[in-house]
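Reminder: ligand-aware prediction takes two inputs, not one.
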Amino acid sequence: MEKRDIVNTGKAKSLYRTDNPDFMIMEFRNDTSAFDGGKVAQLDRKGMVNNRFNAFIMDRLESAGIPTHFQQLLSARESLVKSLQMIPVECVVRNLAAGSLCRRLGIEEGIEIEPPTFELFLKNDALHDPMINESHALAFGWASADQLVRMKTLTYQVNDVLKALFADAGMLLVDYKLEFGVAGGEVVLGDEFSPDGCRIWDSETREKLDKDRFRQDLGNVVESYEIVGRRLGIDFEDTD
Ligand code: TMP
Ligand code: ASP
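Here is what comes back for the chain with aspartic acid:
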C-alpha cells in the first residue's frame, strides 16, 4: 500500500493516508509527552519499541476475539491500521490505585481495586482530558448508548486478557487507557496499547516500568519499556 499525505499529528504518533481509504499508516515517533503536552522529550528507540509492543498486544487481543484496527507491522516505526471514525472518549480501567485516582479521591497508591473501576475521560488536551460520565457522552453526542455499552464490555475483556498476560510474566497491570473508533458500523479498538498509555509494575518489587518513569523523572524510560516487552517475549533486536 502506498503512503500518502499526513492526516493527523498527535503527541507521539502520526497518521498517514494510503491509496486505500480503508487503511492508514500509523507512525510511532520518538516524541514523548505527559501532562497533556506540558512536558515533552525525544527518547531514542521509543518509536520502534512502542510500534513492536503495540503490534504484539493487538495481536493477542485479536486472538482473544477483540476487534482491533491493527493489520500488520510495516517497518521499524510504522504499522498498517484500519481507518476508524474515532470516538473522542478515553476508557480507563484500574486494578490498583495510582495516578489521578489517588489525587482525585485521596486513595492510597497501590491499593487493590476490586471490582476494577471503569472511567470515561473526554479526549481534549486543552481541557486536560476531564472525567465525564455516560450522560455527558450521550447528551453531547460523543458516543451512542450502544457504543458506550460495547466500549465498556471490550475494555473489561481487554483487562481479562492482559492482566493474565502480564501476571504470567511477573508484572502487574495497574491501569490502562483505551480509545475506540467505528468501522463498518462496528466498535473497534484503535490508537495503541504500549507503556505510554498504561501502568505496569514489577509484581515483586512494584518498580514502575511505564510512562510514570518519564512523568516522575525516574530515568531509564525506554529501557524499562524494553524490559516489559522482553519479559512478554517481544524481540526488539532486529529493528532500529
Ligand atoms: P490517570 O491516572 O492519569 O487518570 O491515567 C490512567 C491511565 O490512563 C494511565 O495508565 C495513563 C492512561 N492515560 C493516558 O495514557 N492518556 C490520558 O490522556 C489519560 C487521561 C490517561
Ligand atoms: N498521554 C497524555 C499526555 O501526553 C497524558 C499523560 O500521559 O500524562 O499528555
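Helices lie at 46-63, 99-105, 134-139, 145-168, 212-215, 221-232. The mean pLDDT is 97. We will return to this case in the review session.
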